[in-house]
Amino acid sequence: MSILESLFGTRARKASAAGALLSVNGVGQPRWTPRRYDRLADEGYVKNVVAYRAITEIAQGAAGVPWLLYQTRGGRRVELETHPLLTLLDRPNPAQGGAALKESLAAYLLIAGNAYLEAVGEEGGPPRELHVLRPDRMAVVPGPYGLPSGWAYTVGGQTQRWTADPLTGGGPILHLKRFHPLDDWYGMSPIEAAAFSIDQHNAAGAHNQALLQNGARPTGALVFKPGEHGVPLSDEQRRMIRDQIAETHTGPRGAGRTLVLEGDFEWREMALSPRDMDFVNARNTSARDVALAFGFPPFLLGIPGDNTYANQREARLALWEQTILPLLDQLRDALNGWLGPRFGDGLTLDYDVDAISALALRRERVWDRVRRADFLTVNEKRAAVGYAPVPGGDDLGGVRRRGDGA
User: Fold this and answer.
1) The pTM is what?
2) What single string gives the DSSP state of each residue in 114-125?
């Protein structure tokens, strides 16, 4: 019998047979993320307007959705208007409100592919506070059965460590991560998938800025023709010409000025013009790829060439259905498995779908289909849209006689 079996009984045998192979070379040692978070954050969020806008709107959208709490009583799910868990989510710590904490949690998940939430309080009991931790400072400590045995958080040379349950991997730290096909411990950021497009978009912006600072003139050479006498320019003459051009003809204030020189000179371009590079289309293509990596419809960013949606309302509905709602599903499931049991059994968190204005189009379509379904009773229709039954609403014949069915 193993040590785990002697301490925890036969439950230890339910671990994955392949789980132990994940940690064979690193049990007990912190395993840092193999990517540079600071580079991802700087290039993909701080310096790229498309990624910044996509991450901000997704995170703020998810943070603005209110949470509901239900308790199972006698086989029925009852909504709780007030509860310490709702109070904690509304005011998680002295420095943040609930919306700010959820926004930072979602933003970290999108930027780094990983997000961490710390519960402060008695071990196993209801937390007093919740804190979001920076992903670049956190390291997962692999355990012997393919689950984390703990976490290490390092700031300024000092490290805070937490231990995890050897059977469930649970503890005071909640680790949210996106799917990564090549890493067992850390998630993959959308910025990694869009890295080339982000670099291209940033490089195009830097090129445009440099071009404007150079008087909107591309790189070129001023060629002197010595004529029949064949006397070339001296070093002093070359220096004087360069200084004159740099002083009076570069930068925004020098744009458009006429250059007057003595002798026979010819201007030769040394680089492709923005038109030759198809500058605008190339930048729009990069921006479209960046937006798609985050699941953000390019139509909402005003990027031309995106004809997927007929109008902004449909594009915003797609953003919520394909991107923000799956993010909320992941957060809800994680909180229900990690935070809910600390407050007692039978508690279930969920987000309020009806409070999302962007989904009004979807609700209208559902209501219209239900209203037209003459094979359903009134109560069946009410149940389909989330309303309680009414007396006499189970008579299908009565529904047909009324005609409207609702």
Assistant:
1) 0.73
2) EEEEEEESSTTS
